[in-house]
From TrEMBL:
Belongs to the Nth/MutY family. SMART domains: ENDO3c, FES. The keyword Endoplasmic reticulum does not apply. This is Endonuclease III. Keywords: 4Fe-4S, DNA damage, DNA repair, Endonuclease, Glycosidase, Hydrolase, Iron, Iron-sulfur, Metal-binding, Nuclease.
Length: 212
């Protein structure tokens, strides 16, 4: 991985572009955020936004969810990818937390909950306005980070570690910024490189431009 780029400096235009932008999940509070983050794994945010209102009508808070069972939840999540496990995880998680006021806000406490890995925990911390303890690495970041050359490989945990090593903690929101960039500009096919704020340092763009 090239080390010539001063990443704390180079990442600034990207952070500026997406500063404070809310995650695409349309949640109204932290309880809804946690549920939607669990449901959205390997599914689309758009799909989860569509099914969420009906789910939250029946289960408006953690207390209501804790009284449910995986079998009851299936009715509301049956068209979500991996719905069987997700119904089980949500039920177990709610029984552990019991009340909205008990929702934890550290990476360590969040990642021991069923259905919540590092990426999900990092999203929850970001959207709750907490100090970042890691970097959000979703499928978009797995594509964008190696293209930029800020990280290499395809393992989300290794990519997260590499980004954390080259950026100070106050700039760890670069993960979510790269996710937005991947959704809007740095698409899998036909990326809009010409209008990308990162094209001056992007290895993918500069190598492709040379080869034309």
């Amino acid at each position: 991985m090239p080390n010539k780029i001063n990443w704390p400096e180079a990442i600034k235009p990207l952070l500026k572009k997406y500063k404070g932008k809310q995650h695409p999940l349309e949640y109204k509070n932290v309880y809804q955020l946690i549920v939607m983050v669990v449901l959205s794994a390997q599914d689309s945010d758009k799909h989860i936004n569509q099914i969420a209102p009906k789910f939250f009508e029946v289960f408006p808070d953690m207390k209501a969810l804790s009284k449910s069972t995986p079998e009851l939840l299936l009715k509301y999540v049956s068209d979500v990818r991996n719905f069987g496990n997700k119904a089980k995880w949500l039920s177990e998680m709610a029984q552990k937390i019991k009340d909205d006021k008990n929702i934890p806000f550290t990476l360590e406490e969040l990642t021991v909950l069923p259905g919540i890995g590092r990426k999900s925990a990092n999203v929850i911390l970001r959207e709750s306005g907490k100090e970042p303890e890691g970097v959000i690495v979703d499928l978009h970041v797995v594509r964008v980070a190696p293209r930029l050359s800020i990280a290499s490989g395809t393992d989300p945990k290794k990519i997260e570690k590499q980004i954390m090593e080259v950026l100070p903690q106050k700039e760890w929101d670069a993960g979510m910024a790269m996710s937005f960039l991947g959704r809007e500009i740095c698409r899998p096919t036909n990326p809009k490189c010409e209008i990308c704020v990162m094209n001056t340092v992007c290895v993918f763009y500069n190598e492709n431009r040379k080869s034309r």
